[in-house]
Design brief:
The protein is an alpha/beta fold and 359 residues long. It is built from 14 helices and 17 strands. It folds into two domains: 183 residues, Periplasmic binding protein-like II (D-Maltodextrin-Binding Protein, domain 2, 3-Layer(aba) Sandwich); 142 residues, 3-Layer(aba) Sandwich (D-Maltodextrin-Binding Protein, domain 2). The strands form three sheets. Strands 3, 4, 5, 6, 7, 10, 11, 12, 13, 14, 15, 16 and 17 form a 13-stranded mixed sheet that branches. 45% of the residues are buried.
Length: 359
């Protein structure tokens, strides 16, 4: 995860700063200046910034990243934002690189509104009353399928449609190894987070079997939704946001939940070790967790907010549209949380070579 942003087929970095000028170097707040938010495209919208702006009387500077590898490289090269938005499987790499500082949860008025399951994710604690990672929102990774074009899979809820010869050239998978490797590993009974070399060879073999089936590989929500809407794709590995977009258009789609459950990603907010204004950085984190921002997340983006207390304000129709239950705590405990992959660079290199065979 998460939402890739493509322009002309090329991932680009858009830098938006409060005064409207572009900055490709530097960053980080001084005690008197605005803080810099380094975030996915969807999560720099006005509802996430509203409380910060009300509290400080200023707009934060915003830099959008297209993927977390790009973000990590930019920070390692010297860019120092104040607040960043990695996912749970990624933040340990940033912590190990010395890029993060602990966040005192007692300073966040919305901390206790976060789901207990998410507040207690393994590895986020940074000592008494502190965390490295504040859960912001979550969602799922599964298959979105056209129910009119593949009704048998809507009934079976099976991911095997990816390998069905009948649908060769009409299926797609996400590009990132954090998504595709655990997904395919689970299909063959391998735990991607604890793979032996023998396990990895099995997963690579399955990935090689997958490639001839694929129409394309993409982590762009728009491309996936358009492919499914047109019928170019019958099934696509996607996040629930893709499914939500198609449901809003009343397309005949389903989001599969196979035996054993789907994957759950959690994305959050972290504070840069070099922030020049921790107070404003904390205000920005708290602002993103507000009730209004949380309702916006589920109603307009299609992810689910970590602030599950705010979900009481959301009508049943939204839950029905997303195909999620109101009992979110039970739902969160079903399935598999996406987390850090071992030897990720090795996996990236192997998947890059394998997918190069797509015609």
């Amino acid at each position: 995860m998460k939402t890739g942003w493509l322009l002309g087929g090329v991932a680009v970095l858009l830098v938006l700063v409060a005064g409207g000028w572009l900055a490709l170097r530097g960053g980080g707040a001084t005690a008197s200046g605005p803080v810099t938010l380094f975030q996915w495209q969807d999560y720099m919208d006005a509802p996430f910034l509203k409380d910060y702006e009300a509290a400080t009387g200023e707009k934060p500077a915003i830099t959008i990243f297209a993927d977390e590898d790009e973000a990590f490289a930019k920070m390692r090269a010297g860019f120092k934002p104040d607040v960043m938005g990695p996912c749970y499987y990624e933040f340990p790499r940033w912590k190990d690189a010395g890029l993060l500082r602990p966040i005192p949860v007692g300073r966040l008025k919305n901390w206790n509104k976060i789901s207990p399951t998410l507040r207690n994710l393994p590895g986020i604690a940074a000592g008494p009353g502190q965390v490295w990672f504040v859960p912001h929102y979550w969602g799922n990774t599964s298959l979105t399928i056209r129910t009119d074009l593949a009704p048998e899979y809507a009934k079976s809820q099976s991911w095997e449609i990816l390998f069905d010869p009948k649908y060769k050239g009409r299926v797609s998978v996400l590009d990132g190894v954090d998504d595709v490797v655990p997904f395919i590993a689970k299909m063959i009974g391998v735990d991607a987070y604890n793979m032996s070399e023998a396990d990895w060879r099995k997963v690579q073999a399955k990935l090689k079997d997958l490639v001839p089936q694929l129409r394309f590989v993409s982590s762009d929500d728009t491309a996936l939704a358009q492919g499914l809407a047109s019928g170019e794709l019958v099934a696509a590995m996607s996040w629930r946001t893709t499914f939500a977009a198609l449901r809003r258009e009343n397309r005949p789609v389903a989001y599969l939940e196979p035996p054993g459950g789907m994957f759950t990603y959690v994305c959050g907010l972290v504070m840069h070790a070099g922030t020049g204004n921790a107070d404003k950085a904390l205000a920005l984190i708290d602002s993103a967790l507000s009730d209004a921002a949380s309702v916006y997340t589920v109603e307009h983006i299609g992810d689910e907010p970590a602030n599950t207390a705010a979900m009481k304000q959301v009508p049943d129709s939204v839950f029905e549209m997303l195909q999620i239950p109101r009992d979110l705590e039970t739902f969160l405990k079903h399935g598999t949380f996406q987390r850090r992959l071992k030897d990720k660079d090795k996996l990236i290199a192997a998947w890059t070579e394998i997918k190069s065979g797509i015609q």
